[in-house]
Write a structure and sequence with these properties.
Layout lengths: L1 H9 L4 H8 L3 H60 L5 E2 L5 E2 L8 E8 L2 E7 L2 H11 L8 E7 L12 E7 L5 E4 L7 E9 L5 E6 L3 E2 L12 H8 L7 H5 L4 H6 L1
Antiparallel strand pairs: 1-2, 3-4, 4-7, 5-6, 5-8, 8-9, 8-10
Helix pairs in contact: 2-3
């Protein structure tokens, strides 16, 4: 009896239609159907569960593979884009990090203030300039005497060729940086690197931009307010600060 009910149920008939076709009470048909489901439902679920788990594992594996391949492609594309934009002057270290080159083969000179009395200067001369000088003086670059010049251009235009004072000294070979000290605070300096000619003259090759050393004491705002007031109201014939302060003093305390 149960087999007939199951076969008719599989054909799509309802329990009411099955009861009418078998001429049985609807309650008896419902009882037989529930009994059969209770006996065979666990087996169906147990066989269906591993199938669903296997399908889920396959989907997870395929999704992981797709995600991994996608991330690999993204990393590869980012590495390619980074490699296309990195500077050709940089070299790749064995650890995979970029390292700066020892030199840039350029003509440059820069100064960095360390204190009111000290400045750090570094420079570089290109190979083209070295070869030109070697041909001009018919001596290897290593044999040309190197020199360093300090120019005090306070209140002056460096491009005009004038300086308040200058000092030149010799440098050891293979030198590309120097701590310049002692310097005067609140003063404008220009530093030059060059060579000595056969006549003993200094030939500059590279130079820094004008650099101002900082003050060594507070600005002293209002320090000369009273002398200025006396001169402003005609109590004195000339400004007192010009008569009592040394060279550059007026400029140093107002700039």
């Amino acid at each position: 009896m149960e087999e007939k009910i199951v076969s008719l149920k599989e054909k799509g008939l309802t329990l009411k239609q099955i009861a009418e076709q078998l001429d049985m009470p609807i309650g008896k048909v419902q009882y037989a159907w529930r009994k059969w489901r209770a006996q065979h439902g666990d087996v169906t679920a147990a066989t269906a569960a591993p199938t669903r788990k296997a399908e889920g594992k396959k989907q997870m594996k395929s999704s992981k593979k797709a995600t991994k391949s996608k991330s690999t492609k993204q990393v590869a594309s980012s590495l390619q884009s980074n490699a296309s934009h990195h500077s050709p002057l940089l070299e790749q270290a064995p650890e995979g990090y970029w390292k700066l080159p020892d030199r840039y083969d350029a003509d440059l000179m820069h100064a960095v203030v360390q204190s009111p009395n000290s400045v750090y200067v570094f420079w570089e001369v290109s190979d083209a300039v070295k070869e030109t000088l070697a041909m001009q003086f018919m001596r290897p670059w290593e044999d040309l005497p190197k020199a360093f010049r300090i120019l005090d251009v306070t209140l002056l235009d460096y491009t005009s060729g004038h300086a308040n004072r200058s000092y030149t000294f010799e440098l050891p070979e293979m030198t590309n940086s120097w701590f310049v000290r002692p310097l005067d605070p609140n003063t404008t300096y220009v530093f030059e690197f060059g060579i000595r000619t056969m006549e003993g003259e200094f030939l500059p090759l590279v130079a820094t931009t004008p650099l101002d050393t900082p003050r060594a004491e507070p600005a002293g705002v209002g320090r000369f307010a009273e002398p200025v007031r006396r001169w402003q109201y005609g109590e004195v014939e000339s400004p007192e600060l010009l008569d009592t302060l040394p060279k550059y003093a007026a400029y140093r305390f107002v700039r």
